[in-house]
Every structure is written in C-alpha cells, then in structure tokens.
Amino acid sequence: MSAAMDTESTYSGYSHYSGHSKKAHRQGRDRHKSPRSKDGSRSEKSVTIQTPPAEPLLGNDASRAEEAQDDNWGETTTAITGTSEHSISQEDIARISKDLEDSVGLDCKRYLGLTVAAVLGLLVFLTPIAFILLPQILWRDDLEPCGTVCEGLFISVAFKLLILLIGTWALFFRQPKADLPRVFVFRALLLVLIFLFVFSYWLFYGVRILDSKDTNYQGIVQYAVSLVDALLFIHYLAIVLLELRQLQPMFTVKVVRSTDGESRYYSLGHLSIQRAALVVLENYYRDFTVYNPALLTASKSRAAKHMAGLKVYNVDGNNAAGQSRAMIAAAARRRDSSHNELYYEEADHERRVKKRRARLVVAVEEAFTHIKRLQAEEQQKAPGEMMDPREAAQAIFPSMARALQKYLRTTRQQQYHSMESILQHLSFCITNNMTPKAFLERYLNPGPTLQYDRERWFSKQWTLVSEEAVTSGLQDGIVFVLKCLDFSLVVNVKKIPFIKLSEEFIDPKSHKFVLRLQSETSV
C-alpha cells in the first residue's frame, strides 16, 4: 500500500500549473484545432471504429509544448491528459454505417463459405460408407457372398478414410487469419471439383447399381474403394496448389510506409494479389516499427511556423493566384536560412534525448540495485519468504518514474506506454531476474507493432487498392496499396531475374610450380 501511495504521489506532483503554462496550452490547442479538422475532411473512405484507449502514462498534448521546455520543466508544468476534442459530420456517420454494413456482409460471406465446405466435407466422408451399406440394407438376401476379400477391402477403406480425415483436418480446418475481399480461387476450384466428382459417382451408382440391384457385392465394395483412392489424390492436389506452389520465391516486393518512408523487402512465390497483401500485413506487424504520428508533427509545425511569418498585402487588387505565387516566391527567398534552423533543432533534440537517456539509465540501475538489496533483507529476516514481484515493482517505480516520463515525452512515445503496462513489464523483469538493460530495451528502442497493446495500434482495418483484380496472380511491375485510416503501405512487385550460371574448369596442375635454385650456392 505504501508503494502504491508513493506512486500516486509521484504522479500528483506533476499536476501543478502556472498561469503562463495554462495560457500556452490553450493557445497551442487553438492553434492546432483547425489543421485537425482539415485533415479529417481529407480522410479515406475506410473508417475504423475503435474503443478509446486506456489512460496513457503521459498525455498526447505533451509533445506540442516540448520544444519550449527546458530540463527543469517537470518542477512547475505538466500536460493535460485524458481530454480530447472530436467532431463528426453527417458524412462521417454515413461512412461509419456503410462500414458496419460491409462488416456484416463479410461475416455472412465467411460463415456461408464455412457452412458449404462443412456440408460438402460431410458428404464426401459419408458417400463411401453409404455405397457399402445401401446394398446390405436394400437387397441383402440377393447379394453374392464376398468373404475374405471384402473384409480386406473394408479395412482398406477404413484406414484410407482415417488418413483422409486427418489430412483434411490439417489442411482445411484452420482458424482464419483475415477476411479477404474475394474468394480464394484455388480453394473454390477444389470445392467445385470435389462436388462434381462425388456427384458423378452418385449418378453412376444410382443408375448402374441401385436401379439394377447389382448382386456382385465385391464389385460394389471395390467401387467404393476407387472413390476413396480418388479423394486421396484430390487431397494431394490440394496440398500442391494451396501449400507447395507458393513456397518457391518468384517475386520481390518492396513495402514503403507512406508517412515516414520506412521500407522493407520480402520474397514471395506464386500468390494472388489479395494473399500477397495478407503476407505483407503479417510481416508489417512484425518487422516495421510502430507508427508514431507524434514524430511527424515536428516537421508540420516547422513548415506552418515558416509560412506564418509571411504576409501578403493586396494593394492593387490582385487575385488569389497572384497572392499564392507571391507567397511561394517569398518562401523560396527564405529557404536559404531554413536549413540552419533545422540543423540546430535536430542537434538540440539529440542533445536532450542523450541527456535524459543517461538519467533514465542511471535511475533504473539504482532502482534495480535497491530491489536486490530489499530481496536480500527479506531473505535474512524470514528465510523462504520472497517479496511479491508486483509489490517490488511498485516499491521501486517512483524512483524511476520521473526520468522515464521525461524520456518518453522527449522521444514522443508517451501514448504507447501507460503506467499499468510499465508496472507489468517491470514486475515481469523482476520475476525472471532480468537486468536493467533488458527492462529498458522496450523504451530505448521503438519496437514492432506486435510489442504494444492492440489499443495502441493505429492500423486494424485495411483497404486493398489495386488496378488489377485482387484474385489475379502477381506480375512484374504491379503496384497495389494497403490503406488504413492514418497511413498506407505502397507495395511494388518486381520479378526475380533469371540467373544464368556457368561453370569454369580449373586444371589442378595449373597450381603446381617448380623451385629452381642457382648452382653457385654455398650449400
């Protein structure tokens, strides 16, 4: 309890405001209100409805006043957290309702496909059994005795059906990873092939066996065995089309995030565009660093500040086009000095980051040293009793909270780390006897998207934009875009070139040499 009170007192110490800081925050909020509304009007048609995230450790508005703060800003000022302003229009409501209808349609399509596949699979497994049992039920007395041959065929059918059942379960009964916009062509073709195949067998069975009441029971059983054998071959064909065909790399795709330009390269096989997009998204959540829109606000604010210093006076009644050309010309004349501002801003930011990183490392090392000392004292007082990791994390967290706050605000990562998540990570590190460096790895280096909670993700619903049909295969030069609400991934496909490899034979005797000594030697 005392550790929890210390934690709360640490955070309550940052809630004192001066009149100047309040005014600065109001001005900053009013200044950034209109750009948000403009960006909202240009948003994509795909809208993702998300639940509000949990309260972060630091407010999102803290990065706006970061440029004007010195190293002692934590003594008198803080940032307002937990409040936000949103606006919604009738057009947004219409888009949201359309997305809800689309999501309902996707669910119906998915369950319909699963139902059709399940019914067809049940029909496939019951058909050979029905072929064998129907003559025994309808005209058992007229059947010719089969004996040992039929019993061996029964065992063969039973084991083949068991193998087919296991293979079907391993290949088809998987939890779906995504909802694709179109059907999987090869899987649909296999379902159609199986349906036509079973229907033709039933048609032949009804005409040649049921109508004539064939008495050759051994031939009927062999007919059922041939059906099972053919189903096994279709299963092998499914493995080749669905699994083996895409293993050989044939294309190299370059994935570029539109906001910050981060890119990755991947090798893909023969895939359709929609399945290639699914592979790209799976690798995106693992390989790309988490999308942080706060890192992009610095360049936008710098450009806005640069243009805010320009004033154009309409003296002789020029039109708007003339005013815009005058502003562009004035901005070009001031461009020569803007790179100096950028250089000094980046140098000052790097200096602050290094300074606060050093303070954070020292604070965490001291905290871990303190927890080891507490564990040693607990063992001396009561042998066999260990301190609870959660209590230990709450005990040492106040000593590092301030340094961690400042570092996360400086690096603009505060929206991804709540106090509860930091305490859970700290208790996890204490439980597994991890070092301070292992604890800091999550905060010093931005990790991939999967490292953070789902509430912190800025990309959950994606829209595939392609000039070609999404069911068509990949080709050289194809470009498609994966859009979400805040950014997009541009994918450029290039075919791996044909490599011609030749061989050159080296004669082993060419490596031999002869050492000739002069005759006038002293030896």
UniProtKB/TrEMBL annotation:
Comp. bias regions, Basic residues: 19-35
One GO cellular component, as annotated: plasma membrane
InterPro entries: VANGL (IPR009539)
Extent of Polar residues compositional bias: 74-86
Annotated region (Disordered), positions in chain: 1-86
Keyword Cell membrane: yes
Spans through the membrane: 111-133, 153-172, 184-204, 224-244
Membrane topology: Multi-pass membrane protein
Compartments where found: Cell membrane
Keywords: Cell membrane, Membrane, Transmembrane, Transmembrane helix
Keyword Membrane set for record: yes
Stated name of the protein: VANG1 protein
Homology family: Belongs to the Vang family.
Comp. bias regions, Basic and acidic residues: 36-45
Organism domain of life: Eukaryota
Pfam families: Strabismus (PF06638)
Major localization class: membrane
